[in-house]
Amino acid sequence: MSFVVRVLQSWPRMMAGPVVARFPPIIHHLQVAQDLPLPLAQCSTLLKTWMASDDGGRVLVHDLIRLEVKRLLQQYQSYTGTDLLAATQSLLLLAIVLLFGSNNTPAVSPSEGAHILVEMWEVKHRLANTGMFLKEEIDHILPTWEDWAIVSAKRRTILALHHIEWVWSLLQGYPILTCFELAPLPAPAAGYLWSEMDEVSWKRHYGDWLAQWKGGGYKMGELFNIKHGESLDARSEMWLAEVDEYGMLLMSEINAVSCVE
């Protein structure tokens, strides 16, 4: 579990870091190809301020982050499409700061943390209702690059919200929420597809991926069925061989869940 917490804590720093092209693995580069969507731009500014502040100044920055979280929770219903996705991603990154803080010191009380997570459930459901699958994915054919990138980012964002809920619940001694409703979702895609910068190359690689996964892509339900200490089946091994750091995080969480159980 400590590994999962540490990885999650790194995401706000990635968003605030000096390397512009380095984003947390829930944000696809096509989302920010022109400019940062407004919710992510505001999030980035707050996180840069948070990183630059000393211990005394962080109390004030945490208050500013609280206000932004409150604003997003009040206004998310006015967002649609990619703006809703960006707002949800912003909420997620800011919530990581509040719930896990720095040096394992949360910036909010357990009751306030629980309230934030409960309200974020509604945001997550609204995002999920915008569509979690593409018809082309169901038909196992080539989708458009942009549509695939956005739906993949949605799925990664929703899975990340479950990461936060799971880790925070364990740390607080609360019952762990199940996420078996996510079982039909495609698992995070191959790292080479997610990170590809050129559309022509992406189409070629996606065609190769379709040929490799003739029986259909790997599903979250298959990942959930992995048992701690047992050998992986062929499909799980094939998926693990092609994932990026986000897929590795999921695998570590599966192992942690098995150990807890």
TrEMBL record:
Superkingdom per UniProt: Eukaryota
Entry GO MF terms: metal ion binding
Keyword annotations: Metal-binding, Nucleus, Transcription, Transcription regulation, Zinc
Protein name: Uncharacterized protein
UniProt organism field: Clonostachys byssicola
